[in-house]
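Design request, tokens follow.
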């Protein structure tokens, strides 16, 4: 009896030692993993509007120094865009243009038109034929015309490539999966519903760029990409209002929202007071509150740098 009690005690001691060793090993693995992730962190910059216009512009810098741009903004945002690119080393390795609207493609247009000295390695885009824009959105078709003029310019022509649906573009430790491209069958809100949708993956984090995706192409995304939409960080569709529906955001279930949104649009205030304008921003903000989003990063607050 006495002996077995002692045996039990010894066994318990052994068990405790094994548990402590196991715990130390687990902590060591977590530590090494965190250290590696920290070493590979990317910088994500959301640029702020330099005029009263809404706009969208993002820059990403990998740990190894590669620079990726997503849109850029209007012509008025060109100087700030160039300044940011120069701060990151002065070269763009990949430039995604989500759709030809001038508040997205305007900076690229002006870089080419004004012959601004900028080292661009590759441009990826999605767009319908010019005749399609002329048919379904004749008033704004000139924006597609300007964009086509830009990408057909002899200076960059050879660097331009149209993306394919589900194409994956890897650069350093970052991957960009194209989960949405032009949708010629959707002829309402034609430019926006043919936005490129990009899923960025880095360090087990996922960032979804919805560009100006509208309700109709958002529905198509839900039906065709489903679980792929789930992301830690989301760029709010169409500057945070009248973009995709609440169902799409529910599926994404983000923790952080990136808002390419100027102050008047954030408050839906065209100069007549809070929420007195025609925009749906407050409604979208309420959806995000219901989804328990932890952080809203808003372009109205200036250029913002995020580590991921
Ligand atoms: Zn647009």
């Amino acid at each position: 009896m006495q002996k077995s009690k002692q045996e039990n005690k010894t066994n318990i001691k052994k068990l405790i030692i094994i548990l402590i060793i196991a715990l130390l090993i687990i902590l060591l693995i977590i530590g090494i993993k965190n250290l590696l992730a920290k070493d590979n962190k990317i910088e994500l910059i959301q640029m702020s509007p330099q005029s009263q216009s809404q706009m969208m512009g993002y820059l990403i810098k990998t740990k190894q120094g590669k620079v990726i741009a997503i849109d850029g903004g209007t012509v008025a945002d060109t100087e700030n865009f160039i300044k940011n690119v120069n701060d990151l080393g002065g070269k763009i390795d990949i430039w995604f243009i989500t759709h030809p609207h001038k508040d997205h493609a305007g900076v690229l247009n002006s870089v080419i038109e004004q012959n601004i000295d900028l080292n661009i390695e590759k441009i990826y885009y999605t767009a319908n034929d010019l005749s399609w824009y002329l048919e379904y959105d004749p008033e704004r078709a000139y924006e597609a015309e300007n964009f086509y003029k830009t990408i057909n310019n002899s200076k960059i022509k050879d660097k331009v490539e149209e993306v394919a649906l589900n194409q994956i573009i890897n650069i350093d430790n970052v991957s960009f999966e194209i989960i949405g491209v032009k949708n010629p069958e959707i002829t309402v809100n034609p430019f926006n519903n043919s936005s490129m949708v990009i899923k960025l993956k880095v360090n087990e984090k996922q960032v979804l760029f919805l560009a100006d995706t509208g309700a109709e192409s958002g529905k198509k995304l839900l039906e065709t990409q489903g679980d792929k939409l789930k992301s830690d960080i989301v760029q709010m569709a169409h500057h945070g209002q009248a973009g995709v529906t609440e169902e799409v955001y529910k599926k994404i279930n983000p923790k952080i929202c990136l808002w390419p949104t100027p102050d008047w649009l954030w408050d839906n205030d065209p100069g007549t007071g809070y929420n007195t304008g025609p925009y749906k921003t407050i409604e979208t903000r309420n959806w995000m509150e219901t989804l328990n989003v932890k952080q809203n990063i808003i372009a109205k607050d200036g250029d913002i740098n995020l580590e991921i």
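Comment from the thread starter after seeing the answer: thanks! Residues 99, 101, 104, 191-192, 212 surround zinc ion (CB under 6 Å).
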